[in-house]
Structure formats: C-alpha cells, structure tokens
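Ticket closed. Logging final result for histidine kinase.
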Amino acid sequence: MTPPTWTGTTPQAERIAELESQIEKLTRINAALINRVERATDLHGNAFSLFETAIALEGRVRDRTAELESALADLAASHAALALARDEADTARQRLSDAIESINEGFAIFDAEDRLVLANQTYVSLWPEAADIIKPGVPFANIAETLAARRVPLGALAAPDAWARDRIARHHVADGGQAIALADGRWIQVNEHRTDDGGIVGVYTDITDLKTAEARDRAREQATRAAVLQATLDAMPHGVCLFDAQRKLMAWNGPLLAMLQLGNGRLAAPDRIGSHAAMLAWCRTALPAVAEQGCLDWLDGDSSDTKSATLADGRCIEVHRQPMPSGGLVLRLEDVTQARAAVAAMAQRKSDLEALVAQRTAELERARNQAIAANSSKTRFLAAASHDLLQPLNAARLFVSALAGRRMADGNRLLVGQAASALDSIESLLEALLEISRLDAGAIQPDPRPMPLADLFGALTAEFAAVAQRRGLDLTVEPSGLWVHSDPRLLRRILQNFLSNAVRYTAAGRVTMAARSTPAGIVISVTDTGPGIAPDDQALIFEEFRRLGQRGENDSVERGMGLGLAIVQRAARMLDLPIGLVSAPGEGASFSVTVPAAAPASATANGQQARTGAGVGRATVLVIDNEPAILAGMQAVLEGWGCQVLTAPDSAKALAAASRRPVDLLLADYHLADGDTGDAVVERVRHACGRAIPAAILTADRTPELKDSLSAAGLTILNKPVKPAQLRALMGRMLA
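Final structure:
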C-alpha cells in the first residue's frame, strides 16, 4: 500500500512551538544582560555600582530562570503529549489503511486541491498502466491525462485529449456513477462524491462480468426479437423487405421470394437482392413494370407512398414504401389483382343494388301514394257514410221525439217508446262501427294535453247516474284532484265503454270508478259486482262483436253489440296506454287504464254548465238543411218547444227567410247541395243581417279537421243524429 501523507498542525504542536519561542527569547535577554554588565564594569569600574547592578541582575536572572524552568517543564509535558498523539494518530492511520485495503473495490480520496491523499492497492490495480504515477499528492488531472495518453480507456483510442477533458469534468462534478469502458474489454464503474471539506471520495468497481452478462442477455433478446420479427414477416401474405440506412438488405420474408421468383432461396436472397440496387436489378427481370415505373425507387423523408404497376401477364402489383426514422426503407409488395377484381365486382354489385333500391323505392313510393290515396278515399267514404247513414236516422229520431211530445193513447206511446229504443240501438251500432272504422283508418288523431280528472269524472257521473239508478245499482265515482296527460275525447270514450259495460252487465250491487297515483302513472279503474269473466275469455272480449252469454243470462236489459271493448283497445293503442283487467267468475270485474300523470294547471273555463234557457220557447230559429225530412223533423221538434221555425234548403232561401223577420238562432247542416257548406251559408246570413247571429252546425262528419275548422270560425258543433235533449241544452246556452 502506498503510505499516505498527512498534512496540517495540532494544538500540542502549536503549544510546543510557543514554548520554544519563549525559551529562545529568554536566552537572548539573559545574554544581553550579561553583556551589559561586562560593558558597565569596563567603563566605570565602580564597585558599588557593580554591586548594585549585580544584585538587580541577580533578581532578574532568578525570575527569568524560574520562568525558563517552568517553560521547559511545559515543553517537556507537551513533548510527551505530542508523542502520545502521534502514536494514536499512527495507530488510527494504520487501522484506516487496513480497513481501506480490505475493501474489494478501488478506493481513493482527493483533497480540496484535487490531489491524491489516499488510495488502496485495488485502486492502483485497476489502472496498472498508470501505477507508476498513482502516489499521494499527485493531481487527479495527471492520472486522467496519463490514462488517456496511454490509451487505457476505449474512448481514448480515437480522441485521448477529448476523453481526458470529459473525464476531468465529470470528476469535478462528482454527482454519482459513471461506467468507463477500457480498451482491454474491462468495464469500471466509477462512483464519486464530494466531501464536507471540498475533497472527493471515489469507489471504483470492476463490472466486466456484469456487462458481459448484460451483453449476453441483450444479444439473446435481440435474437429472440429477430426470430419473432422473421416469423411475423413470414406470416404476412404479401412480400416485405427491409433495408438499412446503407441500403443493405436486413430482413425479408417468403412471399417476397416467391413474388421475385427466387423460390425457396432464403439463403440465396442476400446474394441476389442483398442491397437496394441489387433488388432493382433483379426486379427488372422478375417484375419489369414495377421496376421501370419507379415503384421500388429509394424514398427519403418522413412520408410514405403507394404505387402500383400492371405486369404483362395481367397481374397488378402494389408497392408501399415506408421510410424508417433511422434512414432505412421498408418495401411491401402485394399482388392486388384479385382484390381489384373484387372491388370492381363490388362496385358493379353496388351499382346494381342502387338501381334495385331505386326501383324498389319507386315501387314503395307508388304503394305509399296508393295507400295514402286509399286512406284518403276511406276517410272521405267514412265522412259520406256518416252523413248518408245518419241523416235519415236523425230525421227519424226527430219525428219520434215530436210524436212523444203529443197526446196519444197508451198503446201508441208504448210503440213510440219502442221505436225510440230501436233508434237508439241503431244509432249506437252505427256510431260504434264508424268510430272503429275511423280508428283503423287513422282518421282520428290524438291531441294529448294536461286535463283534470275532476271534470271528466263529473261529466261521466252525470251521464251514467240516471242509467245506474234505473238499474238499481249504486254508482260511486270517487272524487279525484289528479291531473293526467292524454286526449280528452279518446280517454272519455275509453271510460264510457268501461262504465257502459259495467252498468249493462251488473244485475245488482255497485259500480265504482276511482283513480290512484302509481309510479307508472295514474291508474283509472272501473269495478263492478257483476258475474265476472273467466281467464280464458279475458282476451276474447276485446274482439269485435264478442259477447259473453253468461254476463247477460239473468239480465233484463239488452246486451250490447260487442264493440265497446274493441273501441277501447284501439283507442288505448293509439294513445299508447296499457289496459288492465282483473276478474274471476262470480267475483265481478275491474277494468283499468294507466294514463301519464300531469302537473296541475291553472283553472280554465272549460265551458259553462249546460243551462236550459228560458228564452228557447220564444226564439225564432232558422233551420238550413237540404234534406226535407230533416227540415220537417226539426220543425216538429222546435215548434213543440214553442219556437218560431223558419226552414230553408239552400243559401238563397235562407237569405230570403232571414230578410222577412229577425232570426235569433241559426241551425245549419254542414253538407248542403251543390258543394255548399253550412258555415258558408251562416256567414252569408250574418253578413246580410249585419250582426253575429248565434249559430250551430249539425253534421254527421266527425273528422278532427272539420272540428278544428269550425271551432276556428267560432261555430258550435252538434253531431248527428241529434238528441233532442242535447239540442235543447245547446240552444239554451246559445240564447242565454
């Protein structure tokens, strides 16, 4: 081990130096005093003066001698302490040297001036080429420059000065580890750090074995990657090859060899297409059009491209060129002959399909237009049928109503009542059939809106209370403050049929209608204590003209036509409302419909209550209808109420009648002769009279369009066949 050199002072050494300086000073003082005494004796020769001087000098000498003896004693003690400290320092230095020498790694300490202070033999053995200069006190720069000059590091073989400068700079930074490759194949790991006094301590480890293992693992990993890459290339259906930045062939696959007619020449490929130029030369024979059209030319830059060429045999070769970040080039060659033929076939197929779709679209459009025309025709037919069927029925009802108001024998009155009942049955049947036809034809369009159940329940109570009372039934409609969102007319029709069936088929007991709020919506139910419905029959009762015999076997009232629940099913389907039924034989039945809930709205005037005006009997009424029977029936009914009646079949006669006397009310049929309409005649009469005479349109046409049109014109609508009670109530409201 190179003996370390220690520099610096200790407190003991400083004390010894101070004592020695004092002794030397006292010696000089003593010599000066003796010299003075001798010179004084020679000059004066005065014995007494000499005696006095000697006495004074003796005291001073004695004092100085005592001080000198004390200083010598302190010097001796300091020398002893210094000797002991030196022994302890030598012992500690030896222990430190032994400890550092026992370290397997190289160890070195440099002072603040970057001079070597201490190094173990392992450190020296790591740099045998510079062992002759690695001694305490040598600057680190000398060691680095010697190693570079003697080409010890691998990096110094080409530029020794540059390596030395970089190594010295890294040493001064002393911020951690650095691996240095040596020319003899060894690797040295350097870990250097600053000490508190500004020096540098370094640990140097031979990591050659570790680097060798890393290189071996890296080579194995690269071999594995190369095998995977080759397997991936071979799995590709198209030819692929890779050239490096020097345009040398690095990788290729089997499909490329087959396309270039190299057969199974994997080993021969580097000889025949080992460079980009060689591949171009080979392709001028194997794929002449591809080579001649520049598809295989070298491509620099970042963007890729794709080119294609058609060979003499009809094959189409597509070449994709992709530059590599390292400066190489990837070529992908693909025979796209079949793919392009398939694309052409698909394009032709697409064209054929488009033509077929256009043809089918045209056919569907024609069918749609025909359906629209048929539906429109059906709608017009329903309107005409409603008018033509209900007109005579309306006349008959008016005549029967007029007869019922006259005196007659009891037998005749019975006949009139039976005739009125028969007319009611016919009217109900026709209305049900026409309503089903309108629902099926889509002639009725729902108009959902927020509505209070209280109004609907009140109207239904008024409608069915008298019927239930005649049947001896207890009709209970539970009050409800709930609001629903639905079409008022269709929802009322659903509940009317529920109540009608319940009242008709319940021989005794009660009928209850109630509403409750559920997470699914507002459930409105009608429950009766009738005979009930068997489970097997519950789906059948919604069919047209389906009536269950057991529900009327003990019933004295005529059964219905079997159309009510069919209408319910169609209306509910149109409103997208679920219908429920809970029933069992002998336990009654409960029909329900679930309606979306709505937030309560501000109270609005939904129409005043029907009031029977006292002025009906004194009113002058002009009735306009092109049917003589209707005019005669209306005149008989109205005159029976005490009205003054004027009749007119058309616009001209209506104007003439209105000019003869003031008219209080106009009642006009909508469909008149020669395409004229009741609302137009009403407008002419009002204009001729110079005032807005109250008017109502009587019509069998129940289409929503007509209703909206007449409502927009401010005209009241009364559907045929007209019931006298409804007509009288309407007249009372209009004349009030």
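Residues 1-9, 550-558, 603-614 have pLDDT under 50 and may be disordered. No further action required.
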